[in-house]
Structures are given as structure tokens and as C-alpha cells.
Amino acid sequence: MGLILRWKEKKQRSSKQEKVQKSRKPANTSFRQQRLKAWQPILSPQSVLPLLILMACIFAPIGIGLVVSTISVQRLVVDYTECDALAPANGFETIPSKYVHYHFSKKVTTKPQWMLTADPETGNQTCRIQFEIPNHIKKSTYVYYHLTNFNQNYREYVQSFDLEQLKGQALIEDDLDPNCDPLRTADNKTVFPCGLIANSMFNDTFGATFTGVNSTPDYLLTKEGIAWHTDRHRYGKTEYNASDIVPPPNWAKLFPNGYTDDNIPDLQNWEEFKVWMRTAALPSFYKLAMKNETNGIGKGTYIADIELNYPVRSFYGTKSLVLTTNSIIGAGNEALGIVYLIVSGIATLFAIIFLIKVIFKPRPMHDHSYLNFDNNDTQFEESSFTSIPLREIL
Question: Which subcellular locations apply to this protein (predicted)?
């Protein structure tokens, strides 16, 4: 008997637990039951028309302003990728038109020319570009280099540096950021600076003086202050000893005998290095090389010397010299202003279409002409509804 009683008590307890089991039904709240209030606008020509007009009124002036500011920018662009292959060595020759683009306030009478010179001792090649400035430019002048088909936006490339090393700390191999691989060490020494970004630094050398021709005075430029002010805190004077470090492999031409106590690069004051380390988002980009913000460049003919060191044919890219002034939005960018004008034009077009529809074919909000109450087509019998169980409806 005792066993039978204990079995009944156990069965009663289990049945009670089943009854007390927590329900999985969501709470009866507006959020859980999807009863929150929502705004559902009714779009009609009358309501959309003011928005289109407002959009056109905003985008049109901005687009016109961008186009006007771009037109005011004066610039010279010379693609010197093929200078070592096409330029003569015994005198200047006109550069093919497909490699030259320029825009000035006055007409250019002499097209840009180039020639190639070589140092017999070192073998270094220099591309000399002779160009004319047809009018005096009072604005500040900037010199950029333009690279194409160079992807600095790959994740492994962007992360390939060690911030603490750039700040000056003397880190050994195990302490360096693993993202610097495979350029952390070489010959059992630490690579300074490590990583892919530093190793691929642009090293064509631009002469800081544009030499004047035919009594035209020389024009001086500077490399000081070309980097962003916000990048200053990222770099410091290194604590490495010259015997503990080696330059990146692609810096062999700059440091043929490696580092010594006298030639360790001072990243804190190396403006060109800071500019290169700020990676670009697109495969075609400009980077500032020199500038003159005190004096504009005068009318005349000048020669710019560029020492050729940086190979671009391996990645099917190009490199260009860009001499330009700047506007409120920076260097000239025709595409941005054109996009604004296109958006304004589309908004204006649709605004006109909706306005014509409102004038010639208006439709009041209370118009029920599109509703159909034909009982023959939509016969609904109450019996068919009542025959469906309530559980299936829910």
C-alpha cells in the first residue's frame, strides 16, 4: 500500500508542475504585440511637389558654386610615366597631348616639353619638364603627385605599421605589431619603419625650385607643413641604435649602406613620410609634395626636375606631376558640381511633371472612383465565414 500511495503523490506533483509551466506567449504590450503607433504618409503630387522644389532650390546653387569654384582653379597636369622611354636626351621635345592637361586664365602659346638626363656616376635618371605659365597666378601654388591603380585601401596594407614604433619606441621583433609581417625583421635586425606602407613609399624626388627660363625668375617651393597637423602626435624621434635596425627593402637606394648614427630618419620631421602614411581610400589619389603659400607663381617659362625612382609599370599604374591652385573645396573637382546639378535637374523635371498633373488632371483626396463595390464580383457570404473555426482564423 505504501508504494501505491507514494506513486500517486508523485503523479500529482508532476501534474501540478505541468500546469505551472511558463507560457511562451509574448507579453501583452504594444511593443511585443506590434501595436505601436506609426506614421504612414500618403504620398500625392500635392505633398511631393514642395519637397522636389525645395531639393532643386538647395542643390542647384550648391552645384553652380562648385562648378564656378572649379573653373577658377588653374592647373597643369603632366603624366611623366613614359618620360624614361619617350623623352629625348639631347634636347626638349613636345610632350604628346594625351599626357598633358592644363587650364589657365589665358591661352598657352608653348606646349609643355620634356627631356631625360642621366647622372653618369650614379646612373640616376631625371625627367626635366619645361612648361609655360601664361598669366600671373596670385593664389597659393601647390604641387601634388598623382598615382593611379595603386590600391592603398586593402585591409592588410592599411594595418601594416606599428604605431608605437612610429612614436619612437625601440621595439624588438616579438614586440612589434604582427600586422607588419613580412617586414618586421631582416638579417636578424628590426626593420625601421616596419610594414608594407613604409616599404612602398613614393620616392620620386621633386626639385624644390622651378628654374626660370629666358629671364623668368626662379620659383621656390617648400616641403614644410605639407602633412596634416593631426598627424604630428603619431610620430617621434626614434630610440633605436643604428646597429639594431635596417631600412625597408625598397629603401635600399636611399640608404645603400644601411643606417648609421648620422642618417637614421627623423620621422617626427619627415613631412613626405607622414603624407604617404596617411593612406588613400581610392586607387587613384593625389598627395601633396610641395607648396608655396606666400607668393604666387609669375608669368613665364619654368623647368621642373623630377628624379625617377618609383616604378609604376609593375602594377599598370601612372604617375603625374600636378601644379595647381586651390579653391574653397580644395583642388578642382568637376564631377562633384556636376552631380549636384544633375540631382537638381531631376528634381526640377519631376516637379514640373507633378505640377502639370495637378493642374490638368487633379484628383481630390475624397475621390472614390477607384473603389469597387460591385457585389457580383466580390460576393461575400456570411455563412462561409461562420463555417471557419475561430482557431483557424487566429
Answer: Membrane
Q: How, if at all, do strands 100-103 and 75-79 pair?
A: antiparallel
Of 140-154, 265-279, 319-333, which gets the smallest average pLDDT?
319-333
pTM higher than 0.90, yes or no?
no
Residue 125 neighbours by CB distance under 10 Å? 17
Contact assessment for residue 44 and residue 91, using Cβ atoms and an 8 Å cutoff: no
Span 61-70, pLDDT tens digits: 999 988 888 8
d(CA 394, CA 382): 17
Name the residue type at position 184: R
C-alpha to C-alpha distance for 246 and 82, rounded to whole angstroms: 32
Per DSSP, the three-state class of 344 is helix
pLDDT at residue number 336:
85
Summarize the confidence of residues 270-274 as an average pLDDT. Answer: 93
Distance CA(244)–CA(253), nearest Å, equals: 20
Phi and psi at 197, nearest 5°, equal: -65, -50
Rounded Cα distance, 257 and 266, in Å: 18
What is the dihedral angle through the alpha carbons of 361, 365, 369, 373, rounded to the nearest 10 degrees? 170
Task: Name the 3-class secondary structure at 230.
Answer: helix
